Amino acid sequence: IDFRKVQFLLSAHAIGQLPAPVYPDIAFAGRSNVGKSSLLNRLVDRSNLVKTSSKPGKTQSLNYFLVEESLYLVDLPGYGYAQVSQQTRQSWQGLITEYVTTRSTLACVVVIIDLRHELKQLDRELVDWLRYLDTPYLPVYTKADKLSRNQQMKNAAALDAGLTLTADDRIIFSSSTGQGLDSLRSRLSGFARS
Ligand code: GDP
After folding, report:
1. Do you know which InterPro entries this protein is assigned to (predicted)?
2. Which residue, judged by its Cα, is nearest atom 9 of ligand 1?
3. The whole model's pTM is what?
């Protein structure tokens, strides 16, 4: 499928506002500032389709995009932003928990992780939870361009070990250089409605 044939559909602030489940959902999750908007924009080859919220952690909405007539891309609110209140954090968790556990057409959660850093507990918890729920997920290690190839391999191996993954289970990515873009597109194409 052609990810460039994309259109914004809606922002849902509650589960009742989601579009009819006629296409599979690919959801994108990650800590605030991890590079989720940049990855999505690169995926669909638009410079600014997905706007970065100036105040991370503030947007509590699920943003839906339709690709061709074959799948939805769902931009989930970023998590782990330290400056948000307990209440905001809980409402994030509530919305995401309800979404992931009730959306029957959820085909895959792309879990975006910064390749430069050690595994964060929240990322590990998200992956564990998706495994527990039996929800397919795809870890993507981003900002690879900020590291040498050698360091990329080292850091990726450490994240793999922390998440108990093998190299085939995840993608090393850069929104700046497009590294990993073909792999990401081909993996996600597999979820599209034929
Ligand atoms: P979001 O909060 O997860 O949506 O993160 P953004 O996509 O807004 O990215 C946060 C910051 O990281 C921005 O300054 C981006 O330009 C930068 N960034 C995101 N992805 C990459 C990448 O792959 N390489 C580099 N060098 N910078 C990136």
Report:
1. G_ENGB_dom, GTP-bd, GTP-bd_ribosome_bio_YsxC, P-loop_NTPase
2. 35
3. 0.95
